[in-house]
Write a structure and sequence with these properties.
The chain is of the alpha+beta class. 20% of the residues lie in helices and 39% in strands. Helix 3 packs parallel to helix 10. The protein is globular, with a radius of gyration of 25 Å.
Amino acid sequence: MTSKRHAHRPGAKLLRVGILTGLGRRFENWELQLFERLLADQRFEMAGFLVHPHPFDGQPSGLAAGWIARLDRALFARQAPYPAPRFARSRKALPVLHLDGASQPVAELGLDLVLRHVPARPPHDLVAGLPFGVWTLSHVEAQSAHANWTGIADTLAKAAGTRLGLTVERGDGKRAVQIAEAAFNTKFSAARNTAFIQEKSVLLAMRELGRLADTRKLAAPAAKAQSARPATPPSLREAAAYAGHLLHGSTMLAAKVLRRRTHSEAAVWTLYSGRGAIDDFDPRKAVEIPPSQTSIKADPFLFRHQGETYVFYENYGVGDSKAHIAVGRLTRDRLEPIGIALGGDSHLSFPFVFSHDGAIFMMPETHQKKRVEIWRAVNFPLVWEPYSSAFEGWSVADSTLFRHKGAWWLFSNLSEHHAFEDHCSALYAFEVDGPKLSSIVAHRRNPVVIGSATARNAGRVFSRHKRLFRPSQNNAYGIYGYGLNIMEIEQLDRETYRETCVRRIVPDFKPGLVGCHHFDASGSRYILDARLNA
């Protein structure tokens, strides 16, 4: 999708981008991903490399901390080399200029902006000559010659998330301005945390570069922006504490992998149902629909049909390696199981059920099949037939379809990745022609939401009292499905997407919970799931 998503507009000037790197420095995977996308997008021109002679000046790296960082990276952040065929073909033709005080050759490149990939800053006169300044991703500031310390402070503090920021420095004497930010669920390994954020930072950078290419205006400073935590090499005491943390985390991870391989572990979710709607429900008053050893229920969707309320849900038992879609009838606060609605050889979840033109459809999560599928009911609620599919070959999760101002929109959590497949970090929007999915137009600012605190869908989109609400997951504190957000969509069209969080639900509304990550409602009833503390 990346290579075909944005075409050059006739008469539009290409945005000329330079890369500030360091002498003798090898490009990392995230950089190669960024270069490939720049070269594939017809709005940009990679105009050359600027080489700083001392890229890590003022960035010390303690000996003990350096050894721990290398071990951490070898154990938990190893990646296969990223193939970058476009860059390999173009590299020899790109100018390489060394920053030795001669600014005139740099000026001849006619750069619009520079992406800074090393901690060292370029000369002031170079910055002053750039119409759109020097752009820096916050993880770049955390580098030393031997390690990157982006995630270590958050890992040790067990922070809710690790922040990523994108700042722009211009030659007007003012301080650098942060124009975009995101937060990602903190990993137990600082090296893995760093590598993950580096890969996802490509999405943030490309989105904001695309906005600039289209508008020729810098984005306004991020509203209520919180700067990413300054990252410095840990002290000897901090390095020792982190070594102990890493040993404990490694032991826990090994035990978890063993339990999974022996099918002796399963996340245990339970359902809660009550009266209310998305803008006024009170989970403290909900009644539990408990799981059993053979029926653990998650991702519930409600559907009213012929006076009955049905619940479609992901269903699996302790020791199962995959789930299927089951359906039951909700009577008061009891769920009467009916049977299996969809099964098969691959894992199924998120059974989004909806109606259109007198037909009933289901769009389950089928990311193991690498596509989106829509099924149509032949004999509701147990017999379904394939109706349409899209995004063949793509890792897509938790898709939802809805109408807004006469247009159909598909919201999906795609994972455009190399080393880190992840469906919690990016929300993509597409204008479509309805359930047929025969026409798909990508939103101009995809991904419209970046960050694991709000990006992943947690149910269908609701229109209520002329307001549009999107439930989303809050993945934080190293927990998948820690909490639930109610996001209000304030603007949605092909060029703009804006939403704000109007409510957060954390797993404190009932005793013994460690997560809650899905919501749905129909009529006067709602249902949500919650994770039990095993």
